[in-house]
Write a structure and sequence with these properties.
Strand content: 25-35%
Number of helices: 12
Number of strands: 15
Distance between the termini: 42 Å
Low-confidence stretches: 1-35
Oligomer: single chain
Mean pLDDT: 86
Helix content: 25-40%
Strand order of the largest sheet: 8-7-6-5-4-3-15-14-13-12-11-10-9
Structural class: alpha+beta
Radius of gyration: 21 Å
Length: 403
């Protein structure tokens, strides 16, 4: 059973990367992407019924929630998905059921929880097609896993969130030195989930106060295609290898996340970019696991360690929730967990930081793991330069895809 689940996960990840996570057929993608303003899902895809009126990036993330909750891949709901004969628009029985489930979840939350997203796909399915309906004796008489709530409930007596952030600023180099940080240019390698394409050359560039791009270039013969995430201080774009869209502009939760990541690149302003700060109880986190096909390509990366951390949570624009985990001993940031919104639940993105080194008096992480619902990039940097000239074009919309 465990082997079957692993194969299912690999299949889901592979098809998501190869085809893009969509419930519907692609229509007019080229003309839609040529527009300057962000487009809604129904403008790019056809046969949209239950998920109208949301940006393309939120739509894609919604598909990610479904696949993660049911341990499905695209082919479980879409006709011939994963082949060149895919028919995204076809109404298969499972896609019809998915629409019913979306409407059911939204109705439950509206009628019982004042519209708050208390019930989601994950609430019942938990990585299963058919939710469990009966408790098992093993679950009753063993220690249940402790899964923390997304939203922290303040507990009296904890250190203030401001004191934890002050400790982080001091550990990173101090407020004065951080205030002088104006740009970053980092170079290294990146391995994606599954190791497809081998290692790519990565460049991370940032410019104060809120511009950032991650550019991952793979060798042409691997067939993977380049991967880019850019944010110019106002607009953001994503290009995903072999994705059904190729590239798309951010307008929903991913745009909020891109903005925060750009601001966090300059840690001296961390106390200004989040509001409603609160402390969570100290806890222990573990390194995010990696499949052997990915970790085997990065022998210099250490995984499997646990860390005692202080926890701070805050909110960003448009309801973005960000939870930050700081090493209790060093004060350095070890994990960023942020939640965007979708019609059927919160969308998690997790970024882990490790291997901190001193660069001109400032501590930077040289290992970054960027994980989202349909991918995991493991980035190992070899050099970081600060306060250097950065080409503004690197923050803008990616150049047109080569035909």
């Amino acid at each position: 059973m465990r082997l079957r689940a692993q194969k299912k996960l690999w299949s889901r990840r592979g098809i998501l990367a190869a085809t893009g996570i969509t419930l519907v057929g692609l229509i007019g993608a080229g003309s839609a992407l040529a527009q300057q303003k962000p487009v809604m899902a129904e403008q790019v895809f056809k046969n949209i019924q239950a998920l109208k009126g949301i940006p393309v990036d939120d739509f894609m993330e919604t598909m990610g929630i479904m696949t993660a909750s049911l341990q499905f891949d695209c082919s479980d709901c879409h006709e011939n998905a994963g082949t060149d004969k895919v028919n995204w628009a076809a109404d298969t029985p499972r896609k019809i059921t998915a629409r019913m489930m979306v409407n059911m979840v939204q109705t439950i939350n509206k009628n019982n929880f004042q519209g708050r997203q208390v019930v989601t796909c994950w609430t019942c399915h938990r990585n299963r097609d058919k939710p469990l309906t009966t408790p098992t004796m093993e679950a009753i008489y063993s220690t249940p896993p402790l899964d923390p709530d997304d939203v922290i409930t303040p507990i009296p007596g904890l250190p203030s969130p401001e004191s934890t952030l002050d400790k982080f600023i001091q550990a990173s180099g101090g407020a004065q030195r951080l205030a002088g940080l104006t740009s970053i240019d980092a170079r290294g390698t990146s391995v994606g989930f599954g190791g497809f394409g081998g290692g790519g050359d990565v460049e991370i560039v940032a410019k104060a106060p809120d511009k950032r791009s991650t550019i991952i270039l793979f060798k042409e013969e691997t067939g993977r295609g380049d991967q880019l995430r850019t944010y110019d201080g106002q607009n953001g774009w994503v290009r995903t290898p072999l994705n059904v869209l190729g590239e798309f502009q951010l307008a929903g939760g991913d745009l909020d996340g891109a903005r925060f990541d750009a601001q966090l690149s300059f840690p001296g302003q961390i106390k200004q970019v989040l509001t409603n700060l609160k402390s969570g109880p100290p806890t222990t986190i573990n390194d995010l696991p990696a499949p052997s096909s990915q970790s085997s390509l990065q022998q210099d990366v250490t995984l499997g360690q646990s860390h005692v951390v202080e926890v701070v949570q805050g909110t960003g624009p448009r309801g973005l929730i960000v939870t930050l985990f700081f090493d209790r001993q060093t004060g350095l940031l070890l994990r960023e967990l942020r939640f965007g919104n979708s019609p059927i639940g919160r969308v998690p993105t997790q970024i882990d930081y490790s291997d901190y080194r001193d660069v001109n008096g400032i501590k930077f992480p040289f290992h970054i793991t960027y994980a989202w619902l349909d991918g995991r990039d493991s980035i190992v940097l070899r050099e970081i330069k600060t306060n250097v000239a950065v080409d503004e074009k690197k923050f803008g919309r990616p150049a047109p895809l080569k035909k």
